Amino acid sequence: MTVFNKVYRCFRKMEDISHHIHDKIASLKCILDLSVVELPKNKIKRLGQEMFALERLLEEFEKCVDQQEEQLKHMKDLEKLFQKDQKDVQHMKDNIPAHMPRKKAPANGNEPAVNQKEAADVQPAQQEHGKKSSKGYIREMAVIIMSEFESIPQYMKGRVSYDQLNAAVHNINTAVTAKYKILQQSVKILNSHSRKLHQRFKEQETKETKGQYFVVDDDIREFTQMKVDKRFQGILNMLRHCQRLRELRGGGLTRYMLL
Asked: What residues contact residue 114 under an 8 Å CB cut-off, 6+ apart?
């Protein structure tokens, strides 16, 4: 039985007792009105019985009042808990982070047919390196969580906000995905532009990048709208601080390798 049902039944019971008490009081008033005359013994006995019954009813009424007060206190406690839960849920609803940490599962290899007009389209090929263990799998950089962002020194953060930093993470992941989808395709099915990109990607690889995922400045420009400027270099410093990437220089290029 719910709390509300118990309270409702208690109110009904109190209402019945109240009506009964009123009836008893009316009966007693009637008897007292006749007290101006000498009453027979049986009437006096009846008056005593009515008084005793009224006393018992009053005791029961007080008991019901106590129960109702206890139920009311319990309901107020439940209301406070409900209000707290409602406030917590609303807070979570109003503060859902724009970037949620997630794990990217390896693809199963059953990818759709390739559209040659889009550089990012892919038909997964056999992986050549140890870390590229599954067909179609492309590693991504994990988003920065708030505790990591707060650990970055203020001089390094400058005016870059938490959301702006994770937007940069998203852009770098976009460039990485687009690049390695092209590398996973056969050169024969690529269009002219994608073939040139494929060749450039291969030329940029070294022994140190074997089995690793990396992009360079030109990849950022090619696949995203993010500007490769001084602010971008500051973001890279923050990502290195959070151990999301490291730099590998050589051959006139700076390679941003995912960790």
From this structure: 121, 122, 123, 185, 189
